[in-house]
Amino acid sequence: MNVKRKVGIANCIAYGVGDMYGGGAFFLISTFSMYFFINVAGLSPFLAGLIPGLGKVWDAVSDPLMGYISDRTKSRFGRRRVYFLVAIVPVFATFALLWVPSPFQGQLATFAFYFIAYLLFYTVTTMTMVPYSALCAEMTEDFAERNRLSGTRMVFSVLATMIVAIFAERIIKSSADPAAGHLAMGLVFAVLYALPWIFVFFGTWELPSRAAAEDEETGPLAVFRNFGTIFRNRSFRVHILMYIAAYTSMDVVMAWLKFYLNDVLQKPGILSTGLAVMIVCEMVMLPAYVALANRKSHGTALITGFAVWFVGMGVFAFHTPETSNTVILLNCALIGAGLSAAVSIPWSILPFVTDVDTLITGKRRAGTYAGAMTLIRKLIQGLLVLPTLGLVLTLIEYRPATGPETVVQTAKTLGLMKLFFIATPMVCIALGIVASMRLAINKKTHRIMYGRNRPPRERRPEGRRRSGDQRNLRAAVGPSL
To answer: CA 178: distance to chain centroid?
Structure first.
């Protein structure tokens, strides 16, 4: 029996606070880790970029595996929520370890230390974020309630990035020793990311109808066959293109921003303020994009945000060291206004994409889809953005500042840094706009799908179904229907 439970404000907050970890930790790593590895730990840019890159080999196994396991977990606490209790201590320990000064000397030994730390960190994020991302689809089937849950999640994700923007750099600089400053920052944020899982566990639930998935096939390759079948879902394929475009653009901006402000614009003191302005605008604009998604569609909301962000990146091309701080901060505000949709809407779409899968397969596989999203998120950051950053910095002959002295980059290096920082996100944003135009999921198609997913006695008879409904449904599902 499907027991309806109303999702209240307290439940939205309890669910949303979990993305303090997902949003904050990835943002902090994107913004500070490469600078830490190169200019504090003393690694070469190439080795620094390899740390997250090589870790993706493990993620290619662990993320699909966790989605498969989560869909099939049976416990008194449900198949998702049990992992939130297990994760509290590992979340703290693995995030803090990323910022511990290496006890070893030499490039290879230091590389090995941080590589292992990254493997542990990403294993824990998989164990936690895959069930968490699947939970929204398990709590309610209501279109508006799902959007409220996803919207609240994004509010806390943006809040976490705002806290990073305001306090991370200040904590680092509170110590005269950069290594000690980064360690202090890591410990503070490790506590911030571990504690919310207590509230997520006690403030959420799973609908009784969401029984654990049963295996139709067994064997060591079953998990990967299960993972591969999700790409039959046309809506998921379009959704993934939107997600890749959005998060690749965001990670490039965040990974390069400190280098761009410090070296190209020669304004090292503006990073915290610029990030804070950007994140505040993200949060302010978030309700507008949620409302636009409810009224029109998720695709419309994302296209709007992409367009604003595209303009903001274009304006950045005209800044020089002589540009006033006020103008640069206004530009950060414009980017933040567009970035709000790019980081929130893809996750808001996920529960509806899993409904399409249920219509195709008859299975409840939100965990498998959440595993795919978590894997792709880490592939974007770890296999694409950060290794590319390290490789590009090496190729353009970037000279790290490993001591107190100021290092001046050549004009060629600065020019190439500026080109990569601006052009790469703009290309990805343009691709995201094209993908967003192809998304067929909206309030109308969700209503049709929800009727098709109900028990037979609750459905509208097929003979009474309008031909327009069939066309809308086929546009969302694709030829698999």
So the answer is: 28
For tokens 């230390």, name the residue. Answer: 113
Backbone angles phi, psi at 230, to 5 degrees: -70, -20
Q: Which residues, in sequence order, are bridge partners of residue 442?
A: 297
- Spacing of C-alpha 223 from chain mean position: 23
Rounded-to-integer distance, Cα 33 and Cα 57, Å = 20
Question: C-alpha distances in angstroms, 193 versus 7, 87, 176?
Answer: 24, 10, 26
Give me the residue label for tokens 């599902």. 477
The count of C-alpha atoms lying within 13 angstroms of the C-alpha of 128, restricted to the half-sphere facing its C-beta, is: 31
Q: What is the DSSP letter of 136?
A: H
User: Taking the CB of residue 330, how many other CB atoms lie within 10 A of it?
Assistant: 13
Average pLDDT, the chain: 82
Measured CA to CA, the distance from residue 383 to residue 57 in angstroms comes to 9
> Do 273 and 329 form a contact (C-beta atoms < 8 A)?
yes
End-to-end C-alpha distance for the chain, whole angstroms: 26
Inter-residue contact 5 to 367 (CB < 8 Å): no
CB 241 within 8 A of CB 15: no
Handedness of CA 447, 449, 450, 452 (dihedral sign): positive
Per residue in 55-101, pLDDT (tens digit) is 767 776 777 788 888 888 888 888 889 999 999 999 999 999 999 99
Q: Enter the tokens of residue 102.
A: 């290496």
| In contact, 161 and 24? CB cutoff 8 Å | yes
* 174 DSSP 8-state letter: T
**Rounded mean pLDDT, 145-160:** 86
Burial of residue 108 (CB within 10 Å: 0-12, 13-18, 19+) is exposed
**Can you read off the two tokens belonging to residue 135?**
């939970």
**Does the global pTM surpass 0.90?**
no
Whether 326 has a pLDDT exceeding 90, the answer reads yes
The length of the chain, given as a count of residues: 481
